[in-house]
Amino acid sequence: MLKLSGIKAGYGSMSVLQGLDLHVDKGEIVALLGSNGVGKTTLNNVISGFIRPTAGTVTFKGDVLNNRKPSEIVAMGVAHVPEGRKIFPNLSISENLKLGAFRRASSNISQNFDRVCTIFPRLKERLSQLAGTLSGGEQQMLAIGRGMMSEPELLILDEPSLGLSPIMVEEMFDLITKINADGVSVLLVEQNVMQSLGVAQRAYVIEQGRFVMQGEAATLLADPQLRQAYLGM
Amino acid sequence: MKFNSVGQIALVVAVCAYLLSVYFMASPVWMGFTINALIVAVIAQSWNITGGFGGMSSFGHAALYGTGAYASAILQVQYGVNPWLAFAIGIVAGAAMGGFIGALAFRYGLKGSYFALVTLAFAEVLRICASSFDITGGGSGLQLKLEPGIANLQFPDRTVVYTLLLVVVALVMLVTYMIKKSRFGAYLVAVRENEDAARALGIDTYKIKVQAMVISGAFGGLAGALYLQLWLFIDSTVVYGSAVSIEALIGPIIGGAGTVWGPLIGTLGLHLLGEGAKHLLPNAPGLNFVLYAIVLICAVRFLPRGLMGLAALIGTLKTRKDEDHA
Lengths: 233, 326
Ligand SMILES: Nc1ncnc2c1ncn2[C@@H]1O[C@H](COP(=O)(O)OP(=O)(O)OP(=O)(O)O)[C@@H](O)[C@H]1O
Ligand SMILES: [Mg+2]
Hints:
heterodimer; A: alpha/beta; 10 strands; 39% helix; globular; B: mainly alpha; ABC transporter involved in vitamin B12 uptake, BtuC; disordered C terminus; binds adenosine-5'-triphosphate; binds magnesium ion
């Protein structure tokens, strides 16, 4: 469904991504793992159209995304939940959610709204509360729920578990599985290697803009090199 | 229109009652001064579209106002164009100027105080240009010929002028209300609240902001063209001066930025205050601006959401809170 080949990108003269090939198939959860500053967010921004790659192509269901605007890419069915809970703090939860329904027909909006409320009962209980007053974990859920409002076929999550308590992290990964079971493919960017490999079918490990490992989640989890480098065992 | 408190309803009723009572005032002073305030309310609503809903605070709305006034005046005086047509073109010229300033400023990602300064610079450049060229009448400005009559868009009867202005203000507020309720309005608020988040949702924030500037420009051009038809005379200071830009922003901030009624309420309130001061201290010209500054400081400090926000706290009605504020 999503296919990246030979992607290079950077900021000004600094190159960050050094030629990446990646694909996400329909129905999959694919994890993108790596430590700080290796280019995970940069890769997301390339897919979402915020940064133009200097080489390579991004295709989604056969359409080349390279020169598409972010708004067009969302309309094509790729939702991006950016890192750092970028919500609208002074708007209510329902207003936040409705803003996610970019370019969708009004009839679909209420349907998507119900669907998001079913997946995120915590949000449903607080629809009129201002988003800024939610707990960190709830804000992250809101950001994901808002992404779901655009009816995506592919959801890109940038470090959804960042800064959450262990229990909340569990809940977050459960939710990701639930969303995926609902028919949405997920590209999951994470530093939480253990949990991510638990829910993903496949994973890529990125270091300094290059994939150093990739494959089935189960295989990677058993890989002594990965265990050594990322799990410290 | 939905209000979420008794206080807001009371405020709106008070304003409407005042506007109605002007018809029955013995002294013509009231109507004259309210007519001026209504024109200012239009430029205030213009500012409110970008500054209030979109969070792009401009210090140079005179650029839009003056462009509407000058476009209409030049067409009428220099080219003998029909006043109605010239009036309409004045609105379009304001919209074009808004789009131009917006496209340029947002192309370079200007925000906050940088945007404010650039708009101020635009207004100043336009003011200097308007005072330098023959076509704009240079330093002496442009004077329309006095030809009362509906065909020339000149109405000698004050009551008629007042009524027409009330209709115009109502229409501008109606358009604002429709914008507020539209998807476009929601995206504009999203831009104000968190532009990065808006962009991540796929909202083309550049386009939304430029469109807001175009609408704001149309309102601003309308206000300027109205001023011209009322006074039949403009010069660069009167329509491009910074006093216009200040009046444009202060009303919405006092009344409640990002609300439909705020600009009208704030503008009327301030003008009543300024007028009162003028009567108490007749020998202090410019005193109203001193007062405005004091009120503005107090409003920013104590009324972050303006009079409408304050009124919202009084007698809150039981509505679903996710219905937004009126
Ligand atoms: N806007 C920018 N301008 C210049 N350099 C940038 C910009 N954004 C990121 N970088 C640099 O690009 C590199 C990769 O950053 P990126 O945000 O993709 O990392 P990341 O893998 O998402 O890290 P983290 O896990 O900390 O979020 C870093 O060296 C960073 O400093
Ligand atoms: Mg990152």
